[in-house]
Amino acid sequence: GIPCKAFTEKGDVIVVTRMCWNHLFKHPIKRPSRIDKLERALTLPLALKLLQKTTTYQEVSKERDRGGNYYLSFGIIGYVRGNRIKVILRKQEKHTHPQLILYSFYQMSHAPTKEPTVENK
Questions:
Q1: What is the pTM of this model?
Q2: Closest by alpha carbon to 60, among 84, 93, 13?
Q3: Which residues of the chain are under the pLDDT cut of 50?
Q4: Strand ranges (DSSP E) for the chain?
Q5: Contact 81/72 with Cβ under 8 angstroms?
Q6: Are 73 and 57 in contact (CB under 8 A)?
């Protein structure tokens, strides 16, 4: 699992499952192109770094999936190397051993590029 300082008081670690993989790379409507899938894959190391360094989460919501299960969703937003990253974690509400699951992550904005300067002499 991935340790996260925002959830250390409960002793939780974040688990990456097949549900995350299917949501990120095999969703036929949201990400049909290879470029979208590649962008998500390249964002994974930044999302893991954000999870390891963050101490708080910014968003909490209660959601229900198609099977009728209720989940708590936690949103973590932060900057890693100048890129704004959002990570979404899920935790099943009514379960004997609920786990924090990495559900989704994406890059919200890119780091600004440096403009070449032209010196007039």
A1: 0.79
A2: 93
A3: none
A4: 2-3, 13-16, 59-64, 70-80, 83-92, 100-109
A5: no
A6: no
Q: How many CA atoms lie within 13 A of 43 on its CB side?
A: 25
Among 104, 105, 107, smallest CA distance to 71 is for 104
Cβ atoms < 10 Å from Cβ of 33: 8
**pLDDT tens column, 24-47:** 888 777 777 888 888 888 888 999
Identify the residue whose tokens are 């549900």.
19
Which residue in this structure is represented by tokens 């704004």? 84
* Helix, strand or coil, per DSSP, at residue 97: coil
Q: How much is the pLDDT for 116?
A: 65
Q: Rounded CA gap, 89 and 67, in Å? A: 18
Sheet holding 59-64, edge to edge: 2-3, 13-16, 100-109, 83-92, 70-80, 59-64
State how far Cα 108 lies from the chain centre.
11
